[in-house]
Each structure stands twice: as C-alpha cells, then as structure tokens.
Amino acid sequence: MTPLTLAWSRGRMELLQFSRSRESVVFTLLFPVIMISIFGSIFNGVIAPGVRFTQYFVTGMIATGLMTVGFQNLAIQIPIERDKGVLKRLRGTPMPPWAYFAGKVVFVIVVGVVETVLLLAIATAFFGLDMPGSATDWWTFAWVSVLGITACTLCGIAFTSLVRTARGAPAVVTPVALVLQFISGVFFVFTQLPTWMQQVAALFPLKWMCQGMRSVFLPDSFAANEPGGSWELGKVALVLGLWCVIGLVLCVRTFRWSNRD
Hints:
By secondary structure, the chain is an all-alpha fold.
C-alpha cells in the first residue's frame, strides 16, 4: 500500500468506529449545535453597534468545535485504546507507527469539516450569522482553522501522556476543555473577563482561534473591542504556529504506546 492509501485506510477505520458510537457522535457533532440553540434563544441583545451576542457566540463555538474534535476527542480516545492494548498490538504489526497518527489526522479533518459546515448552516439559517463576503475573509477562515485544528490535534495527542487510565481520561480532559472555553471568550465577551483571566487565556490556542474567527464573521468596527484594539491576525498566526511546534515536540518526546504499569 502507498503511504496515502495506508493513511486513508486507517482514517476510514477511525471514521467507521466513530460513526458506530452514538455517544461520541452526539457529543462531538451535536453538542455545539445544542449550545448555539440554547444561547441563541436566551441572549438576543446587542454587544456592540451592529453585533448581536449570538453572532459573537457562534464564532467562539466554531473554534470550540475544532478544539473538541482535535484536542478533547483524541485526549480521551487514545488512552482508551492504550488501556485496551490496541496501541501495543498495533505497534507489533508491520504497520508503520506514522500510519496510526495519519488515521487520527484524517478522522479529525473529516469530522472537523462536517461539524464546521453544520454549525455555519444552523447559525446562518436560524441566528442571522452573515457569511464572509470576500476571498480575504475566507482565506483567513481557512488558515485559522488549519492552524487551530493542527495545534489542538497535536496537543490532544501529547496530553495523553498525562492520562494514566482510560477511566480517568474524561475526568482529566473535560475540565481542561471547559475552563479554556470560559476564559477564552466563548461564552462571554473576552474583554469583559478579569484581566488576569485574559492573560492566562492568551497563553493557549483557543483564545486566538476565537479571535481569528471573529475577524472573519464580525464587522471590522468590532476590532476596537479586542484587547489590542485590532484583530492582530499576525499574532494569531504566530501563537497558533508556535503551539503546532510545541505540540509536535511534546508528541515525539512523551507519547506512550502502552501503560506505565
């Protein structure tokens, strides 16, 4: 098999396993949609001239959806496979190690695209989200999504080294994901959060993913409400790129194919 065929074969198997787990499908694909429906129905106010809270919230949920697929899903799923001995058995087969990770990447890309399209369709149809009107905005949307989901995927794989057992994976990973959402401006306007909270959030990818998404879907006038007074897209690219490098280094140095025991 060629490398491309092998990667797709592994990715197809990952997608089949995912589709057969109704709990994973509901949590990964429908949870962001449910959150948009709830918050969109409760909060109808305007947070800035021409910007409703729903529009602001949707941009954060798009970024959160990418983080859920890349970081949270893998950080829980991989320890389960490791606990069951799946990784150890795969390591003993002729399949090259990179193929396992390639399959995870294919899975993350496909599910991430499906989830993003679903969120955009729901938000546009029911909550008045305006789609980007220029090629520049779509280009920004593309590179923020690619860098963001790459950073989250690598960090999700690296984070598995901190999870000792499959049973403890959700208890370790879910609180981290929820805290990042609350401090990164997903549920609240970022500049209304305490200063120390903004500074902590700025250390992690999700805050910059949300900011990049806001630059695509919100009017340019809203940039004055950002901490730096502008969209700071150069800094968005820099931070997300750094997290891709950090995540890759941590993956190489810390990933384990079997339990410590």
